[in-house]
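During the second year of the project, the team shifted from modelling isolated chains to modelling whole assemblies. The rationale, set out in the original proposal, was that interfaces cannot be judged from single-chain predictions alone. As a representative example for this report, we include one of the complexes processed in the last quarter. Its constituent sequences, exactly as entered into the pipeline, are reproduced here:
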Amino acid sequence: MFRSHILVCGGTGCTSGNSMKIYDALVERIRKEGLENEVHVTKTGCFGLCALGPIMIVYPEGAFYSQVKVEDVDEIINEHIIKGRIVTRLLYMETVSEDGGIKALNDTNFYKKQHRVALRNCGVINPEKIEEYIAYDGYEALGKVLTEMTPQDVIDVISKSGLRGRGGAGFPTGRKWQFAKNSVGKKKYVCCNADEGDPGAFMDRSILEGDPHAVIEAMAIAAYAIGSDQGYIYVRAEYPIAVQRLTIAIKQAREYGLLGKNIFNSGFNFDLDIRLGAGAFVCGEETALMTSIEGHRGEPRPRPPFPAVKGLFGKPTILNNVETYANIPQIILKGADWFASMGTEKSRGTKVFALGGKIHNTGLVEIPMGTTMREIIYDIGGGCPNGKKFKAAQTGGPSGGCIPAHLIDTPIDYDNLIAIGSMMGSGGLIVMDEDNCMVDIAKFFLEFTVDESCGKCTACRIGTKRLYEMLCKVTDGTATMEDLDKMEELCYYIKENSLCGLGQTAPNPVLSTLHYFRDEYEAHVRDKRCPAGVCKKLLRYQIVADKCKGCTLCARNCPVGAISGTVKEPHVIDPNKCIKCGVCMEKCKFGAIIKA
Amino acid sequence: MAKKIDVPFNGTKEQEEKLRAELAQLKTRGDNGLMIAALQKAQDIYGYLPEAVQQIIADELGVSLAEVYGVATFYAQFSLYPKGQYKIGVCLGTACYVKGSGDVYKKICDTLKIEGGQCTDDLKFSLDATRCIGCCGLAPVMTVNDDVYGKVTPDEVEGILAKYRD
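Output from the structure prediction step:
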C-alpha cells in the first residue's frame, strides 16, 4: 500500500512542456528519500486541461498542481510529500474553495459539465500497464462477448445504443458492422482510423496515449462480431508517443492471451498490427486509408463497392475511428440503454471536443451530445481571453464551417451542425474572436485542401486551387462583387463533382463564411478594408494625433523611413512608403498607432 | 517545392547493408503493402530518399522505380532532398494559426532567407510547415528537431535559432 500517489500527465501537450523531466526528477527525489514503498509516481494519459500543463495530481488529497516546473519538484516533495503541507501557489485556482480547502476536480467549471466515457481512463491509469486497465474493468467486455454473446447479439447491442461514427460523418456503427457480418468471405479485416488529420483535433491521439487497451479491446469485439481474425491500426507517424504506447499495449495484450489464438478459451483468434501513415490528410477517408495500408498512393476508390463488401486487400472490412472504438467496451458492459440515455434523439452518447484557439481553457472536453456551444465555450472553456469578443467557432476542420455568435445556443449534435452549415468532424473546435478575419480563415482552410487534395478528381484538384486564388483576390482587395458569386458557384461545382469526402466538403469553410459573414467579404471587396485588421494588403497604419507625444520612437524603428514629424509634435505615416510590417505599432508606448 | 541542392549521393556500404537487411526483415511479414514501411525505414537510415535509394527498394520489392517514386512523392513525410541538421517545424494547424503562427513562420523565412520545404545552403537548417502536432495548449508552437517551443512570438525566433547556430 502506498500512502500517496503522484500522477504526472504524459500526454503530448504536457510532454512538450517537459513533464517527463518532472517525472524523472520526482522518481529520483523519492528514491533519495527512501520513500519508494510509500509514494508511487506514475505517468498517465491526458487530463484534458492542456492550457495549464504540465499537470500533476497528488492523491489522497487530490491536489491539482498546474504549470509545474522541474524546479518546483523539490518544494512539492519537501512540503507536500514529507511535511503534508499542500503547495498552494501551484494549485489550479479553480480547485481552491473559499475556505482554502481543495475542491474535487469534478466540481470545477472545466470538469463539472463533462461526462467522460471515451476519456474515462485518460489521466487516471498508467497506459503502459495492462494491469491498471484490467483493474478498471478492462477486457471484461471482451470476456463477456466471447463467453455469453453471439456475434449477432453484439451487433444488436451496438445498434440499439445508437452509437454513430465519431470520425466525422456519423454513420451508425451497428449498421456498418451488420453489413460486414452479412458479407460472405473467409478473410475479413477490422481497421482503426487513427490518422487524425484535422488541424486542431487531438482526441484520438489522447485516447491512444491515455487508454490504448480500450481501442484494442474494442477492435477484438468488432472482429468477433463480423467474423474477422486480423486488425490494423493506421496511425499517424507524427504521433510518436501514441505509437509507442500502442506497441507496448499490443505486446502486453498478447502476453496475457488477450490477442492471439483461442482468446478466453473460446476458439476465437484475433491479432493486430500497426501501420504508420506518412502524412496525407486524404488518408483519413476510408477507401484512401485502405489503399494506403496496401502500400500505394493513398487515393480514394469509388463506392460502391463499399468496404464492408470489398475493402482492404479486396476483402470485407470495417473501419472505425479511435473514439468510436473507445465507447464500445462501455456499451457492452453497461448496456445499450445506458448509452442511449445520454445525448439527443438522433445523436446518442457523448462527444469529445478539442478546444483551441482564442479560448482560456484549451484542452480536451467530453460532453453529452446536445450540450450547447455556449456551455462549451463559456462555462467549460472560460470564454475568450483578454476581454475580446467571441466571433465564431469553427468545427469540422477543413470540412466544416464557422458557426457565428448568434447561433451559440444551438445544441450540438450531428444533424444540428449540418443544418447550420458545419459538421461534427472529428471534434476540433477552434474559437475565434474579433481579431480573426473570416475571409483569411476560409483562405487558410483552402490552402490546406489545395495542398492535401490527392489529385484524382479534376473538380477537387483544380477547383480548390481556383477557389483559393479567388480568395486571395478578396484578401488583396482586387476582387469584384461578381467574383463572390462566381466563388459560390464554384463551391457547389466542387462539391458535386468530387469522388470522396475531401472534395465534397472542401468548399464548406468558404460557403459558411460567405453565408454568415458576407458583410466581411463585401468590406474587402467594396471598401477595400479588412474589418479585423488581418489582411496585410488592405491595412493602413495611422497615427492618432491626440495620442502621439512626438517621441520619434516609431520613426526611428520604421525600416523604410515612412514616418515623419518633428520632436514633440504628432507624426504621420506615408501610406505610399509603408510596407505594413507593424513595427511602429509594436514599439509605440502610447497606443497612438492604429490599424484602419 | 524543396530547393534543389546539388548534394552528391554518398550513402555508405553500411547504410546499404542495413537497408537491405531491414527490407528482408519486412518481407517476412508476408502480406502486401510493404512500400510505405520500406520508405520509412530507408528515410530513417539515409535521412532522405535519393534516386539510388529508391532503386534499391524497387529491386528488393520487385516493383518499378516509377511506383516507388509515385508513393514517395505522395506523402508529406518523405523527402527526395536532404534536410538540414536542424529541422525546424512550425505548426500551421488551425489552433496555432489563429494565434499567429503564420507570423512566426514568416519571421523564420525572413531570418534564414529560405522558404518552407527548403534548406539553408550550409545544410544547417531546413524549414517545414507542419500539421497539428497536438499540443494546442501551447499554441503557437515551433519545433527544432525534438525540442518543442510553445507560445512563440516572432520576436523570440532569433533567440531560438541562435541556440543552434554553432
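Residues 22 and 41 of chain B are 7 Å apart (CA to CA). The first helix of chain B runs from residue 13 to 27.
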